[in-house]
Amino acid sequence: MSSSLHNSKKRLRAILTHVPLKMRASRATGRTSIVTIDGFTLKVPEGVFHPQFFYSSRILIEELRRIDLTGTQVLDMGTGSGILALAAARRGATVLAVDVNPAAAKAASANAEANGLAGRVSVRTSDLFARVGDEKFDVIVWNPPFYPKPPLHPARAAWDAGDSYEVIRRFAASAASHLHRGGKCILIFSSDMDIPMIIGMFTLHGFRTSTLNTYRRFLESFEVHSFSLRESS
Q: How many domains does the structure of the chain reveal?
């Protein structure tokens, strides 16, 4: 796709989809709301990424259904409301959920308790792996921020990845040391992102990638990628 066509589609989608969606999302995220998603009742406080208004969380829930997580250890990076941690725990995993936003970590912990999964889900406030220590996981799942600009406050960290996707770059540099042998990272990317650049970040640190699925939603598409370490790494 040419750059001009890609940019035109982005502008059109902003007019037809993102603007009204952003208005609805802003109204919802500006106050605490209670929603039911995939059988879980979630309390989503102000300033926490709202899984009802964005496709990415629900797509990753679908992907987790395809994996046998029985007896596995899962890290839910950037957990937000905790919806992916709950989905993994329901599939039999023991989950550590982390988020740089303290309000999100508090919400995820409360939602795990409210949905009867506190015994399988533990939650920490952490900037990526900063408070993960030397723990290792079979699966690390992350719905990363999509936009290459600095977050102005912790709540924006769910959307803004820093200049040149600096947050994703840091994740790629550290993830290998937190995977069990044969483990993998599962991430979702938007067509708004520079996906080849991001894949290059993982390649640099010994990962190979495979595209698990592609989802199209109006003028935007999403790719779910699995990153695993090359055998020589």
A: 1
Q: Which residues of 64-94 are buried (b: 16+ CB within 10 A; e: fewer)?
A: beebebeebbbbbbbbbbbbbbbbbbbbebb
Is the Cα dihedral 123, 53, 155, 130 positive or negative? positive
Report the C-alpha gap between 61 and 72 in whole angstroms. Answer: 16
Tokens representing residue 47 in the block:
């300033």
Q: Domain of 44: which CATH number?
A: 3.40.50.150
Give pLDDT tens digits for 26-73: 444 567 889 999 999 999 999 999 998 888 999 999 999 999 999 999
**Total number of residues shown for the chain:** 233
Q: Give me the helices (H) in the chain, please.
A: 3-13, 19-29, 55-65, 83-90, 102-114, 166-174, 195-204
Give this prediction's pTM: 0.88
DSSP at 82: S
Average pLDDT over residues 91-98: 98
Residues 97, 99: Cα–Cα separation, whole Å: 7
User: Residue 24 — pLDDT band, cuts 50, 70, 90?
Assistant: very low
Instruction: Write out the residue range of the structural domain in which residue 171 sits.
Output: 3-229
Residue 74 in contact with residue 141, Cβ under 8 Å?
A: yes
Give the pairing type, strands 73-77 and 94-99: parallel
